[in-house]
Design goal:
Layout: H1 3-38, H2 45-58, H3 65-99
Length: 116
């Protein structure tokens, strides 16, 4: 293969990686939503340990395990940030909804209407 052909192949692979990383990010956002709904923490070291074990087991080279692990550490950092942003967004939406009902955010009951 020529240098140009190899670079075109790398460009195609890069686009595939982008697609896969975005697919992984969407899955991480959904995980964040589930964690929020079930009050689970964003950071789960045991899960991350399993991810690293899985990628090392799947690695057939030429990347050394340690380098692949470094790449995944960064990917996981970004995915964790997405989950935190998802949780913050949900909290902000809940606070905004409560604030849009004057008095309700402080625990007051809505005024009764009609004849009593």
């Amino acid at each position: 293969m020529t240098l140009e052909e190899l670079r075109k192949q790398i460009d195609v692979l890069d686009r595939q990686l982008v697609d896969l990383l975005n697919e992984r990010a969407r899955a991480a956002q959904m995980v964040g939503q589930l964690k929020a709904a079930t009050s689970l923490p964003v950071y789960e070291p045991n899960r991350e340990k399993i991810v690293y074990e899985n990628i090392r087991a799947a690695n057939q080279g030429p990347l050394p395990d340690i380098e692949l692990t470094h790449i995944y550490e960064r990917i996981i950092d970004v995915m964790r940030a997405l989950q935190r942003n998802e949780l913050a967004s949900q909290r902000n939406n809940a606070q905004a909804a409560a604030a849009s009902e004057p008095g309700l955010a402080a625990g007051a009951s809505p005024p009764e209407t009609g004849k009593g």
